[in-house]
Amino acid sequence: QVQLVESGGGLVQAGDSLRLSCAATGSGRTFGSFAMGWFRQAPGKDREFVAAVDLSGRNSAYADSVKGRFTISRDNRRNTMYLQMNRLKPEDTADYYCAPVFNREVRAGFNSWGQGTQVTVSS
Hints:
Elements: E1 3-7, E2 10-13, E3 18-25, H1 30-33, E4 36-41, E5 48-53, E6 60-62, E7 70-75, E8 80-85, E9 94-102, E10 105-106, E11 117-122
Parallel strand pairs: 2-11
Antiparallel strand pairs: 1-3, 3-8, 4-5, 4-9, 5-6, 7-8, 9-10, 9-11
């Protein structure tokens, strides 16, 4: 069974940068067979789509709120995906999770959520 492990979060100031990682461990097809994405959930809010990257790593999509500031990438040899977050804003504060994605939604049938990584941006 594949496990997704998110890391790289922290407490930063507005304008700072962070790089999140999502590592897939164990057996299974999750990372190597699907487009992957980042989602986030702020306290008291629903989970929202942040960014996605296709299987090749050459095509990506972003939520309007992060476009131009965040960059998603993946290294299929290392079964790892990244989210470079620049010019962070207080509204980026949330727990960030990775998951296989389809059309900006969590892929149907996926329920092996990792523990997430917390990002807190102070003003």
